[in-house]
Predict the 3D structure of the following.
Amino acid sequence: MVSYLRGVCMDKFKIKFETIRFPLIILLFTVALKGLSHTLLSEPVYSVLAINLTWLITIMEIIQDFSGILIQYLPFIIIVKVLGKKHSSERVVLMFIVSYLLFLTVTKFIGQSTLPEIVYDDLFGIGTMVTSGQLVKNSVNLIPFRLGFIGVIIVGYISDLSFRITRSRTKYGFLPYIDKDILALITTLFLTLIAAFAFSFIWPIVISLLFSVFEWIASDITNPVSTFVYGFIDRTLSLLNISEINRESFLFTSLGGSWMNDMGENFVGDISIWNQQIKSGIFDSGFGRFITPYYIINIFAIPGFVLGVYSLYTNKRERLNVLSFAILIIIIAVFADLSLPLEIFLIIMAPMLYAFHLFAVSSLFAILQGFKIFIGSLYSGSVSNISLGNGIELFSLFKYQSLQASIISIIAIGGIVGILYFLITRFYYNYLSVGLINKFEIEVLVEEVLEVVGGIDNVEKIDSSPFRIEVELVRPQLFNYERLETTSISRVIETKSSYALYYGSDSTIIRKEIMLRKEMMKP
């Protein structure tokens, strides 16, 4: 087997998907471990394991902590992978690491330190206790902001830009002992310093506005419009890997509500209240509203999407090869929250599908609130370790007769949502992935493919998947390798009998158009 990769760095599919494919696999593995540890450490299971299997509890606690840490550092890992892959140089990666530490340090000292605790995150353990001085009036523990993908994207872009614009540097400049790599580092650090100072003043304003919205949601928490807005914010912040901000606020603080039991004990937060009310035999108070939609997302929506993608494979042999992986994803979705891997995949490969998903999830929050269908979570640990929408947890609650109607309603609505995700996924790849704005774009891509493969008469068989088209040629010697350098193809894999051309989400429509042309040529 021979593989060809285009060297054009601006190729969207190669740079954006091929580069992060392995980090996505790591993320998938991590959320699976997180879901498993969540299941085994939830209260009903934990009480059983604690009797004879304390060693298993210890292992699950290690896995839980490890998975939380890995997800916390995921943005950093992805940007390191992207920069290293794009430039094939460890220098740009080192530039990024040094500059990112500078970015965190500057924002730690200059940024506002009196915001809610959850908006800070001691990434890399660089928090500093500072006594009274010029920067602070009183002793304070300075911790960098919780930035997720935001900070690494800013610094990653600066590193990429600086590295590219300094490649033309020669030793005959004004300071010949400063080579292009040193100049790139200096440029990156200077631009990062400016960005960090600006960000230190802008980000607190954003956070203040965000918490103003939180207060508005909390003021009318039973309104479907409020829960719709919460769902939209949750998924947006989740994609940025900073959803701990809203989840900590609503699941574990008074923004999610407060409740006092008969003993006079006061509980705050959606999860805390729901757990205590279950113990008290209260099942219809409305709490659990910020958890319920994720049962539908994980158990029904994600499998619907996976089956929709699987159905797009036209080659029977290839469908058989990916069947086991599709089944594995569906099984994992039952006990783990796969929404983040799904959304990263969608925002890169199918932005329009991501927009649909964002609207669908937000609507689920509103619909379930409107119909007063609430099922919370039995988990009582930290927000960074919770796995929302655990199916095993959901079905374990069926023993409560008062919750059975809600669980059945979730299954019914989930079935509809799963079918909708399946149909929308197929519709997008078959009709909307290319040519929606410019209808001639399809024609250009088809002509491009036919020029590479030696014309439509040379196409003996063509198959497609959501990632590539695979063609068998009548005369393989007519395959135009030189034309590859000027095409949108990100990768070509040659086997003894076929060529796989990686066109990403455009592949399905390209195959359909070529099949239509071949059909029209028949006498």
